[in-house]
Amino acid sequence: MATNENLPPNVIKQLAKELKNLDETPPEGIKVVVNDDDFSTIYADIEGPAGTPYENGIFRMKLLLSHDFPHSPPKGYFMTKIFHPNIATNGEICVNTLKKDWNPSLGLRHVLLVVRCLLIEPFPESALNEQAGKMLLENYEEYARLARLYTGVHALKPKPKSKTGAISESTTALNVDQTKAVPSSKVPLPAASAPLAGSTASKAPGTNSQDQNAVAVLPTEAAVGGRRRRERQRQYRRRQQRWFPPLQKVR
């Protein structure tokens, strides 16, 4: 396996250019992971194509570049377990592009796209996983079931973290704080206002305790005026009796 130190400078320059292009405009369903200190190992995450048993899966793979790359093809391996005719149990990838059909002019983008196409259209005739190849030809339903099972166990996309837990914790903390508060039955009530001096308010039938603490109502203007009129009438009658004594009856 090569490293940046023993790869030819022109190869390093070409790889750096390709990797930058892959990072800026990634192929559909492929994300390349780069180690700037070692271009000899290229990692990529491949999304399972829709409509295949690998749908909703993320598969990590790697390409190993030899010291005479690009004159010799890279070796490809799946690091994520997968049930596929052209991928061995140790992860080795069998595809003509990485073997007899290799051409030094082929770039990394082309290699990655060919590998993803294998998930769409396997080639059971050149199977590394004989069980998967035979099952694909004879019983596709069973092959698809096992492939989906592998995907669900080993390659399922991680679900985004929910904030429900944080909300629940906050709610719990709020409930705890509320339980620590003074119960309403124990909260001291303000003292009742003292009655006005001279008031003779008494509890009327049907009134509650709050009515007893009510401030005495001052007399209205109408009530005051009525007392004044009655007082003037009494004074007028006294003057009449004094000025016009009653006549005595004639016997």
Automatic annotation (TrEMBL):
Query: Which GO molecular function entries does the Swiss-Prot or TrEMBL record give?
Result: ATP binding; ubiquitin conjugating enzyme activity
Q: Where is this region: Disordered?
A: 178-251
Q: Which InterPro entries match?
A: Ub_conjugating_enzyme, UBC, UBQ-conjugating_AS, UBQ-conjugating_enzyme/RWD
Q: According to its UniProt record, which residues of this chain constitute the active site?
A: 94 (glycyl thioester intermediate)
List each copy of the UBC core domain by range. 10-156
Q: Where is the composition biased (Basic residues)?
A: 226-241
Give start-end positions of Low complexity composition bias.
181-202
Pfam families per the UniProt record, alphabetical: UQ_con
Q: What class of enzyme is it?
A: transferase
Keyword Kinase annotated: no
Similarity field? Belongs to the ubiquitin-conjugating enzyme family.
PANTHER family per the UniProt record, alphabetical: UBIQUITIN-CONJUGATING ENZYME E2
Q: What is this protein called?
A: E2 ubiquitin-conjugating enzyme
